[in-house]
Protein backbone atom coordinates (compact mmCIF):
# COMPACT_ATOMS: atom_id res chain seq x y z
CA UNK A 1 0.00 0.00 0.00
CA UNK A 2 3.03 2.24 0.07
CA UNK A 3 3.29 1.94 -3.71
CA UNK A 4 2.35 5.10 -5.51
CA UNK A 5 -1.38 4.94 -6.09
CA UNK A 6 -2.45 7.08 -9.03
CA UNK A 7 -6.02 7.13 -7.76
CA UNK A 8 -4.81 8.48 -4.41
CA UNK A 9 -7.38 6.23 -2.79
CA UNK A 10 -6.00 6.13 0.74
CA UNK A 11 -5.90 9.91 0.82
CA UNK A 12 -9.44 10.16 -0.53
CA UNK A 13 -10.62 7.68 2.06
CA UNK A 14 -9.05 9.66 4.89
CA UNK A 15 -10.81 12.75 3.56
CA UNK A 16 -14.11 10.85 3.43
CA UNK A 17 -13.72 9.92 7.10
CA UNK A 18 -12.91 13.52 7.96
CA UNK A 19 -15.94 14.82 6.04
CA UNK A 20 -18.08 12.36 7.97
CA UNK A 21 -16.57 13.59 11.23
CA UNK A 22 -17.40 17.17 10.24
CA UNK A 23 -21.00 16.29 9.38
CA UNK A 24 -21.31 14.62 12.76
CA UNK A 25 -19.91 17.71 14.49
CA UNK A 26 -22.50 19.92 12.78
CA UNK A 27 -25.28 17.55 13.81
CA UNK A 28 -23.87 17.51 17.35
CA UNK A 29 -23.99 21.29 17.56
CA UNK A 30 -27.59 21.36 16.32
CA UNK A 31 -28.75 18.62 18.66
CA UNK A 32 -26.97 19.96 21.74
CA UNK A 33 -28.32 23.42 21.09
CA UNK A 34 -31.88 22.21 20.69
CA UNK A 35 -31.53 19.87 23.67
CA UNK A 36 -30.28 22.67 25.89
CA UNK A 37 -32.89 25.10 24.62
CA UNK A 38 -35.76 22.78 25.47
CA UNK A 39 -34.01 21.26 28.49
CA UNK A 40 -34.72 17.89 26.92
CA UNK A 41 -32.62 14.85 27.90
CA UNK A 42 -33.36 13.00 24.64
CA UNK A 43 -32.04 15.88 22.61
CA UNK A 44 -28.91 16.12 24.74
CA UNK A 45 -28.35 12.37 24.59
CA UNK A 46 -28.72 12.45 20.81
CA UNK A 47 -26.15 15.24 20.72
CA UNK A 48 -23.73 13.16 22.76
CA UNK A 49 -24.24 10.27 20.33
CA UNK A 50 -23.47 12.52 17.38
CA UNK A 51 -20.32 13.64 19.18
CA UNK A 52 -19.31 10.00 19.64
CA UNK A 53 -19.85 9.45 15.89
CA UNK A 54 -17.60 12.45 15.21
CA UNK A 55 -14.85 10.96 17.38
CA UNK A 56 -15.29 7.52 15.81
CA UNK A 57 -15.06 8.99 12.31
CA UNK A 58 -11.93 10.90 13.26
CA UNK A 59 -10.47 7.64 14.59
CA UNK A 60 -11.43 5.82 11.41
CA UNK A 61 -9.58 8.40 9.38
CA UNK A 62 -6.42 7.76 11.35
CA UNK A 63 -6.72 4.02 10.73
CA UNK A 64 -7.01 3.85 6.96
CA UNK A 65 -3.78 1.89 6.68
CA UNK A 66 -4.88 -0.59 9.32
CA UNK A 67 -7.85 -2.46 7.84
CA UNK A 68 -8.76 -4.91 10.60
CA UNK A 69 -9.71 -2.45 13.32
CA UNK A 70 -11.54 -0.26 10.86
CA UNK A 71 -14.49 -2.63 10.46
CA UNK A 72 -15.26 -2.22 14.17
CA UNK A 73 -15.10 1.56 13.85
CA UNK A 74 -17.32 1.43 10.77
CA UNK A 75 -19.95 -0.72 12.43
CA UNK A 76 -19.85 1.33 15.63
CA UNK A 77 -20.32 4.56 13.70
CA UNK A 78 -23.42 3.12 12.02
CA UNK A 79 -24.80 1.82 15.33
CA UNK A 80 -24.29 5.05 17.24
CA UNK A 81 -25.85 7.02 14.38
CA UNK A 82 -28.91 4.75 14.59
CA UNK A 83 -29.00 5.34 18.33
CA UNK A 84 -28.81 9.10 17.79
CA UNK A 85 -31.67 8.81 15.29
CA UNK A 86 -33.82 6.89 17.75
CA UNK A 87 -33.19 9.52 20.40
CA UNK A 88 -34.07 12.26 17.92
CA UNK A 89 -37.40 10.54 17.24
CA UNK A 90 -38.07 10.33 20.99
CA UNK A 91 -37.10 13.98 21.34
CA UNK A 92 -39.47 15.00 18.52
CA UNK A 93 -42.37 13.12 20.04
CA UNK A 94 -41.87 14.72 23.43
CA UNK A 95 -41.20 18.31 22.47
CA UNK B 1 -19.25 -7.04 17.93
CA UNK B 2 -15.49 -7.04 17.77
CA UNK B 3 -15.37 -10.66 16.65
CA UNK B 4 -15.30 -10.74 12.83
CA UNK B 5 -18.38 -12.28 11.16
CA UNK B 6 -17.85 -15.44 9.14
CA UNK B 7 -18.05 -13.77 5.74
CA UNK B 8 -15.23 -11.41 6.71
CA UNK B 9 -12.72 -14.22 6.37
CA UNK B 10 -14.19 -16.19 3.49
CA UNK B 11 -13.16 -15.82 -0.13
CA UNK B 12 -10.10 -13.76 -0.94
CA UNK B 13 -9.02 -10.28 0.03
CA UNK B 14 -10.18 -7.89 -2.68
CA UNK B 15 -7.95 -5.23 -4.20
CA UNK B 16 -7.60 -2.67 -1.42
CA UNK B 17 -8.80 0.05 -3.76
CA UNK B 18 -12.20 -1.61 -4.06
CA UNK B 19 -12.34 -1.98 -0.30
CA UNK B 20 -11.59 1.70 0.12
CA UNK B 21 -14.15 2.64 -2.51
CA UNK B 22 -16.79 0.61 -0.68
CA UNK B 23 -15.79 2.31 2.55
CA UNK B 24 -16.08 5.78 1.04
CA UNK B 25 -19.54 4.92 -0.25
CA UNK B 26 -20.58 3.81 3.25
CA UNK B 27 -19.29 7.10 4.67
CA UNK B 28 -21.21 9.05 2.05
CA UNK B 29 -24.43 7.30 3.05
CA UNK B 30 -23.64 7.87 6.73
CA UNK B 31 -23.22 11.59 6.04
CA UNK B 32 -26.60 11.56 4.31
CA UNK B 33 -28.13 9.91 7.37
CA UNK B 34 -26.60 12.57 9.62
CA UNK B 35 -27.89 15.27 7.30
CA UNK B 36 -31.41 13.82 7.49
CA UNK B 37 -31.25 13.90 11.29
CA UNK B 38 -30.02 17.49 11.19
CA UNK B 39 -32.83 18.26 8.73
CA UNK B 40 -35.42 16.83 11.11
CA UNK B 41 -34.21 19.15 13.86
CA UNK B 42 -33.92 22.11 11.51
CA UNK B 43 -37.51 21.57 10.41
CA UNK B 44 -38.92 22.14 13.88
CA UNK B 45 -36.40 24.85 14.70
CA UNK B 46 -36.45 27.03 11.63
CA UNK B 47 -39.80 26.46 9.95
CA UNK B 48 -42.77 28.19 11.64
CA UNK B 49 -45.62 26.06 12.94
CA UNK B 50 -47.87 24.67 10.25
CA UNK B 51 -51.61 25.28 10.24
CA UNK B 52 -52.26 21.54 10.34
CA UNK B 53 -51.54 20.41 13.88
CA UNK B 54 -48.83 17.83 14.24
CA UNK B 55 -47.86 17.96 10.56
CA UNK B 56 -44.52 19.66 11.15
CA UNK B 57 -43.60 17.21 13.89
CA UNK B 58 -44.83 14.33 11.75
CA UNK B 59 -42.62 15.36 8.83
CA UNK B 60 -39.66 15.79 11.17
CA UNK B 61 -40.24 12.28 12.49
CA UNK B 62 -40.34 10.96 8.91
CA UNK B 63 -36.94 12.53 8.26
CA UNK B 64 -35.53 11.19 11.53
CA UNK B 65 -36.82 7.69 10.77
CA UNK B 66 -35.30 7.92 7.31
CA UNK B 67 -31.96 8.96 8.79
CA UNK B 68 -31.99 6.18 11.36
CA UNK B 69 -32.85 3.43 8.88
CA UNK B 70 -30.36 4.85 6.39
CA UNK B 71 -27.52 4.50 8.90
CA UNK B 72 -28.42 0.85 9.44
CA UNK B 73 -28.88 0.16 5.72
CA UNK B 74 -25.58 1.85 4.93
CA UNK B 75 -23.76 -0.70 7.03
CA UNK B 76 -25.79 -3.56 5.55
CA UNK B 77 -24.94 -2.37 2.04
CA UNK B 78 -21.26 -2.11 2.92
CA UNK B 79 -21.23 -5.63 4.38
CA UNK B 80 -23.05 -7.11 1.39
CA UNK B 81 -20.76 -5.45 -1.14
CA UNK B 82 -17.65 -6.42 0.82
CA UNK B 83 -18.81 -10.02 0.98
CA UNK B 84 -19.65 -10.07 -2.74
CA UNK B 85 -16.20 -8.71 -3.57
CA UNK B 86 -14.51 -11.36 -1.44
CA UNK B 87 -16.44 -14.13 -3.21
CA UNK B 88 -16.02 -12.61 -6.67
CA UNK B 89 -19.79 -12.48 -6.97
CA UNK B 90 -21.92 -9.82 -8.64
CA UNK B 91 -22.38 -6.62 -6.63
CA UNK B 92 -25.82 -6.55 -5.03
CA UNK B 93 -28.35 -4.05 -6.38
CA UNK B 94 -29.74 -1.62 -3.89
CA UNK B 95 -32.81 0.54 -3.77
CA UNK B 96 -31.20 2.93 -1.26
CA UNK B 97 -30.61 5.86 -3.60
CA UNK B 98 -34.15 5.72 -4.98
CA UNK B 99 -35.68 5.32 -1.54
CA UNK B 100 -33.82 8.24 -0.02
CA UNK B 101 -34.55 10.46 -3.00
CA UNK B 102 -38.27 9.68 -2.81
CA UNK B 103 -38.56 10.32 0.93
CA UNK B 104 -36.51 13.50 0.87
CA UNK B 105 -38.38 14.91 -2.14
CA UNK B 106 -41.79 14.11 -0.71
CA UNK B 107 -41.03 15.75 2.62
CA UNK B 108 -39.51 18.74 0.86
CA UNK B 109 -42.54 19.12 -1.40
CA UNK B 110 -44.95 19.01 1.51
CA UNK B 111 -42.93 21.60 3.44
CA UNK B 112 -42.75 23.95 0.45
CA UNK B 113 -46.45 23.54 -0.23
CA UNK B 114 -47.47 24.21 3.35
CA UNK B 115 -45.15 27.18 3.78
CA UNK B 116 -46.25 28.75 0.52
CA UNK B 117 -49.95 28.29 1.22
CA UNK B 118 -49.89 30.21 4.51
Give an overview of the whole structure:
- The complex is a heterodimer of chains A (95) and B (118).
- By secondary structure, chain A is an all-alpha fold.
- Chain A is built from three helices and no strands.
- Chain A has helices spanning 9-37, 41-62, 67-94.
- The longest helix of chain A has 29 residues, at 9-37.
- Chain A is elongated.
- Chain B has 118 residues and is an all-alpha fold.
- Chain B has three helices and no strands.
- Chain B has helices at 16-46, 55-86, 96-116.
- The relative contact order of chain B is 0.16.
- The interface between A and B is large, with 43 and 39 residues.
Distance N terminus to C terminus of chain B? 50 Å
Biggest chain pair interface: A-B, 43 and 39 residues
Q: Structural class of the secondary structure composition of chain B?
A: mainly alpha
Which assembly state applies to the chains in this document?
heterodimer
The profile of the biggest β sheet of chain A is: none
Sequence of secondary-structure elements of chain B: HHH
C-alpha-based Rg of chain B, rounded: 18 Å
SS content category of chain A: mainly alpha
Unreliable stretches of chain B (pLDDT < 50, length at least 5) are: none
